[in-house]
Amino acid sequence: MKNVAGLLLVLVVSACSTTSPDVVQRGDAQRLSTVQDATVLSVRPVTVEGTQSGMGSVAGGLVGGVAGSSVGGRREGVIVGVLGAVAGAVAGNAIERSATREDAVEILLQMRNGERRAIVQARGAETLVPGDAVILVMTGGKARVTRAPR
Questions:
Q1: How, if at all, do strands 133-139 and 34-48 pair?
Q2: CA distance 44 to 42
Q3: Residue 120's closest CA among 134, 133, 103?
């Protein structure tokens, strides 16, 4: 039973990722990025919904099925095991979704060329406010906003 619970934890944690501007993905390291100057127009808090990869459901179903099958005799164990697997799958999906949800900000930018752009990114160490000079860093289709160097 401990091994199955451990498997659930590993699967749920491995499904987690971040959009934090303070974390650079391994594939983005040592890549040339495009940088544009901008000014922050507005910042508002948003929530990035969690993922549902199915791994939480599978792991929860395994845990629930194994736990339920150990109840009572053979016949009861099968019935309770099936019910435990279904309940575990629902719970595992909810846990995965909750564990991968992120607090984020939507940043509206005024670019130097007059265009306006918006980006959603996880909350980082920097707190941006309207009027801040920032840079928009774009790497391989991904973008992040950070305070401009002074």
A1: antiparallel
A2: 7
A3: 103
For residue 62, give the nearest of 44, 87, 38 by alpha carbon: 87
Contact status, residue 62 vs residue 88, Cβ threshold 8 Å? yes
Phi-psi region of 114 (alpha: psi -120 to 50; beta: other; left: phi over 0): left
Q: How far is CA 119 from CA 48, 55, 85, 106, in A?
A: 12, 29, 40, 6
Q: What is the pTM of this model?
A: 0.57
Taking only the tens place, the pLDDT of each residue in 6-46 is 444 444 444 444 566 667 667 667 678 899 999 999 999 98
Query: What residue spans of the chain are helical by DSSP H?
Result: 2-14, 55-69, 74-99
DSSP reduced 3-state for 145: strand
CB 23 within 8 A of CB 121: no
Rounded distance between C-alpha atoms, residue 150 and residue 140, angstroms: 26
